[in-house]
Structure formats: C-alpha cells, structure tokens
Amino acid sequence: MRLAKQHQNRARAAWYHVEVSFSGPGFVRAAFVGLCGALAALPGASCAADEGATATPPIHPAADGSVDAIHDTKASDSADSEGPTGCIPATCVKLGATCGGAPDGCGGAVSCGACPAGETCGGAGPNQCGSGPCTAKTCNQLGASCGAISDGCSAVLQCGTCSTGSCINNACGCTPTSCSALSLQCGSASDGCGGTLSCGQCPGNQACSSGSCGCSGGQHLCGDDCVADGTCCTDGDCTGLTVCSSPGTACACRTSPARLATYRSVHGQDHLLSTNPTEGEPYGYVSEGIVFYIYATPCQWGLVPLHRVRNTTTNEHLCTANDLERDTLVAAGWAEENDIGCIASAPTCGSVEIYRLQKSWHILTVDSAERDALMAAGWTLESTAGYAWNSP
Questions:
Q1: In this structure, is the dihedral angle defined by the CA atoms of residues 138, 144, 150 and 156, taken in order, positive or negative?
Q2: Structure confidence by residue, pLDDT tens digits, 16-43
Q3: Would 62 be classed as within a structural domain?
Q4: What is the extent of the structural domain holding 381?
Q5: Same domain, 292 and 333
Q6: What pLDDT shows up at residue 85?
C-alpha cells in the first residue's frame, strides 16, 4: 500500500508542470507536459522523455481580469540571455524570488518554482514562500498604468501599454521635444507633453514666421537686419566708384582716396600733362595750372590708366587711354613714358568729359569754353579721351 500511495503522489505532482505561451492578446495556452510524467508514475507505464521536468506554478487570472504573464524560461539562474530588444531579463536569483512569477525587467516574467507543501507563495512577501496569507493586488491598486508588475504575491500583472510616450516604472511618461529638434529658430510651440517651448526672438529687425527668422517681401538680409531691396549692405553690393556708406542706403560715390591734381604746361607747341607741377620746368615748360583731377595708379574700381607717350623726333607728348593706340605709337617709334593716373571710361560720380583736340600737335582739356575757342582757332576735336573730375 505504501508503494501505491507513492505512485499516486508522483502523478499528482507531475500534473503541476506547465508551460505557458501567448498565442495572442488575452489568450493563454497551457500545455500540461506533466501528463506523460503522470502516466509514468503509474505501475507499468513508462515515459522516459519527461525525466528531469521541474514544476512551475499554475496560471491564475489576476484580480482585475488580466492574466499572469509567466513564461517558462527553463534557463539557469546563473546565466543571462539578451532579449530581442537588447534588454537582458533578470533571473530569479537576481530578483531574490523563490516562487511564483516575477517581472524580468524586460516586460516579461520568470517562473521561480513552487512552494513546499503547507506554504503559500507570497506568504512571506512577494515571491517568497511562507505560511502567512497573501492578497493579490490589481494594477489600479498598485498605481501601475503600463508594463509588467508583481501582484504582490506570486503572479505578474500586465498593465497595458502607453498610447503616447514610454512606460517608465509602470507609468506612462513623456519626453518633451526641443526647439532644435523641431528646427525652430523663434516663437513658441508645443513640447508634445502639454507644455510650451519658447524658442526665442529673431536677431535684429527680422520677423518670425512659422518658427523661422527672415525678411518680408521687398527686403533682403543684411547681417542681422532686413534692409529694403535696391539698397546696399556692404561695398560688395556696389560697383565702380560707389561704396556702401551705410547699410540700408543706396550706394554712394566714394569720398576717399583723394584725387590727384593734373597739371598742364606748355613749351612751344607741346602740351605736357603731369601730376608733378614742376616736371617740365627743367626743360623750359611753363605751367598752365590744373586742368582736371584723376585717381592715382594702380587703377581699380573699373578705372583705366591714362598713358603718356612721346614722339622721339619732335618731342611731342600725347595722352591716351586707348591701349591699342599706345601700342601702335610705340611700335612706330614713340617712347612710352608713364601712366599719369586713372580716369573713367564712362561718366560716373560727377566726372566730366576730357576733350582731345589736334592741330599737328595735341592738347587735352575739360573746359568746354577752351574747347570751343581752340576749335574756333582751327583745332580739330578728335575724340573723348575719357572722364576726369573738376575737384579732388
């Protein structure tokens, strides 16, 4: 009789070995693999394939209707296995659990076995065997709104997921976004968690539109400020002799450097132009005074050089801004002396026309009255030599 009773006890114990897996939300499939062990416990029956199976606690619905989320890991408590999300589930040993199901820290649970006869899992605290009673709690009672949590006794409750944010310590949390993450330069916006982001103000006089700083129609950016189209921001917006004296204004003629006075002196029929008032004195030239003003070399801002060449036979001096004419005269035997200075090839910034007249010899003037008098005296107006100025 004693031997028969032992067989019955083995069969009864074998029925408690279950494996749990989830076939879908809210569905639990329990496979009583201990059935074979139960049969093996009967006289004359054999089931060698179930040798070594360990008992795990039965699956119970939680008090709030959820199901214990216990999975039979069948893994040694001395080894960790990394889950598919990169989370390493905790073992029973690490959790200090000796029975029941316990949250593994990765959203699942570990099964930590059953208690000896006469003891209850949770009787000495969560997942601890003891003789005391244990009343399981619900997700609401535990204040858990998401994730897996122990019911305080022997089961794991699944308290749902978060519609927004992430589940942190069984509470749905929200990480506010930032102005930079939203690519906002200015203004205000929702932080995605019920708060408001303040993304600052635009620099200068720029306007904030849809979180971006910029200029309205008819304006363009100049540094941090918006200026009207057609006005300058830097000298780079201007051409020729004009500069940007103040951002947001029209380009204006430069006031520096000062222009050089150009003197004319005469000796016989030759007229010598030079920025040096005494250059011709050693050779008998008599100064006629200043005829116009020009810029110093090297030429810039679109100005061109005024060349001076000399006929080596007659000592006549001729001035031209035409490179081809200079080269042709030099090829014909004229001597290239120097560039007097820089003039404009078109009217600009108050310039005046330089008239070149010829009567065997050449003369340059910007005085229209002198031009007319020379023409009345038989001189021929050849061309416009360029443009100079009447003041420094």
A1: positive
A2: 333 333 333 333 333 333 333 333 334 4
A3: yes
A4: 260-388
A5: yes
A6: 57
Q: How many domains does the chain have?
A: 3
Residues 34 and 133 both lie in one domain = yes
**Does position 267 have pLDDT exceeding 70, yes or no?**
yes
Pair (246, 274) in one structural domain: no
For the chain, the maximum distance between any two Cα atoms, rounded to a whole number of angstroms, is: 159
Task: With respect to residue 352, please indicate whether it lies within any of the assigned structural domains.
Answer: yes
Nearest residue to 364 (alpha-carbon basis) of 232, 215, 250, 263: 263
- Specify the pLDDT at position 328: 97
363 touches 380 (CB < 8 A) = no
- Two tokens at 48? 């060698």
Is the backbone of residue 86 left (phi > 0), alpha (psi -120 to 50) or beta? left
Threshold 0.70, pTM exceeds: no
Average pLDDT, the chain: 82
* Residue 105 resides in a domain: yes
Other Cβ atoms less than 10 A from the Cβ of 27: the count is 9
Name the burial class of residue 246, with classes exposed (0-12), middle (13-18) and buried (19+) by CB atoms within 10 angstroms of its CB.
Answer: exposed
- Using a 10 angstrom Cβ sphere, with 0-12 exposed, 13-18 middle and 19 or more buried, the burial of residue 189 is middle
- 313 within some domain: yes
